[in-house]
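hey m, so remember when u said the tokens were messed up on ur end? i reran from scratch. heres the input so u can diff it against urs
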Amino acid sequence: MAARAVASATISFGLVSIPVKLYSTAVSGSGVHFNMLHGACKGRLKQQYICPQHENQVVTRDEMVKGYEFAKDQYVTFTDEEIKAMEEKATQSVDITEFVPADQVPAVYFEKSYYLGPDKGGARAYALLSQAMKKVGRVALAQYAARGKQYLVMISPLDDGLLLQQLYYSDEVRPMSEVPLDEAEVKDKELDLAIALIHQIESDTFRPENYKDDVKTRVEAAIQAKVEGAEVVVAEAEPKAQIIDLMAALKASLGDKSASPPPAAEEEPAAKGRKGPRAVDAAEKPARKKKEAASK
């Protein structure tokens, strides 16, 4: 089934204009969604806005105004006309401002993706831009106005076409420095085992078809069972074995049978290279004493 365009635009590349169409990269609404129902009659519920200052009075849409909270419980209000006047005028023009190396845009900036396809009369310029960016190994940064907003976007070559990715602005992305990180020492042996584990399950290609949404499959099966009148039985999840020791966990992951940590009651082995008397088991002591008395 051919993809359906969700919007049209024009890429401005110097004095070159490329008419394109935007296509969604994913199937929208593919997840399982539940509705809120009234338990007594199973009727679908409707949302309402209420005003707590007027004894939870229901407020209709024609009585609502939009406001911005500039301080605790203090608002400035705007009319729809005032908000409309502040919106960006939609030009449907994707204006390229610069080309940067493909690896210079961190993945944390990616918000949403769209395929770009050539519109009428744009096939040649479209192919030229895609091949040129592939050749130099760079992606294009641009701004795009639509639906009253101005978006920062990145255009990159993908297979024989182009991909447009909507980006967050810098003030929308939290820096990693805001995440609390405890200092921890990584030992060389642990690092070697971790690298070995990576090599054990590494792959040179990304195969998304190898991954399935098990939760979605399970929910859909439960829904179908209920539709057919069957009772859904919830199975208890089996607890996973916990290995607290990091080295033991790494070795166990690599399939090392000797990775299991020793029992707590077991004594520490003698130091390597040190010779000494063999430890005598408590059960052996009475038998040894009898043997010594008989020899006398």
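this time it looks ok to me. The chain is about 25% helix and 25% strand. if urs says something different then somethings off w ur setup not the seq
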